[in-house]
Amino acid sequence: MMIFPKINLHIHSTYSDGNNSIREIVQKSIKQGLEYICITDHFTNSWKANIIPNLDTKEKMEQYLTELSEIRQELIEDSQNLVLLKGIEVDITSSYDYIMKMISPQDYDILLFEYVESVEGVGFVKNLLLNWKQQFEKINEYCIFGLAHFDPSYFEYSSLGILMNFLKQYNVYFEFNSSYPQFYSQRYSNFFHELQANQILVSIGCDSHDISNLDNFEEPLNMIEFYALELNLKRFIEILRTRKRYYNTI
Ligand SMILES: [Zn+2]
Question: How far does the centroid of ligand 1 lie from the alpha carbon of residue 40, in Å?
C-alpha cells in the first residue's frame, strides 16, 4: 500500500447543515493530523433549499470565502501542516441560471457536483464547465471539479462510456465517500475497473457534518487499494501538492 496523506475533502460547516464552525473543524483536523481538508457547504435552489441551510446569498458566500481565507492564512502563519481548501457542493437540480449567477468557480479550490444521476445530468455539468471555461480561461489551474457521493448504479450499462469520456475530458474526479459506502460496493467493480482503465482521478471525502467523523478515511483508502486505484489517487494528491504553493498566496 502506498502511503497517502490524511485527506477529507468533503466537510460541512455551520454555513450549511454541519454542526460545527470552520474554526472548530480546523482545530480538530490539526489534532487528528489531517493534511488536507476542504469545506464544501451546500449550494442549491431546488426543493432542498427550503429544508437545509445553504449558501443562499452573495453576502453569505462572501463571508464564507473570507473566513476560509483568513483561517487559511492563520494556518500558514502558524506553520501548520494542515491545508484548508475552499469548496462548495453544488446541487445540480438547481437552476442553471442561478448557478451561473451566484458562483464564480475561480473563488473555489474544489467544486463538487451532487446528484449527477443521468446522461442529462452529465450534460448539465458539461454545459456549466464549458460556459465557465469560456469566461475563465485557466479555470483548471485553480479549481478542481468532482462528483460528490456518486451512485454508479445509474451508469451501469450503456451510458458508462459517456460518463467516462466526460470525466476524462474534463478532468472530473470520483469521490470515495465514507458516508455512502454502498456506492463503492463490489457490485460496481466494472465501474471501478473503468475508472482505472481511463485514469480518472479519485479522491476521498467523508461528508462530515460533525467533527466526530472527520477522519473516516480508512475504509475509502482500503477500497482504493482493493480496486487498484492508488495511482489515480496519487495523481490527485500531486495536483494538491503542486497547488499548495498557490494556496499559500491567496
Ligand atoms: Zn455533502
Answer: 7
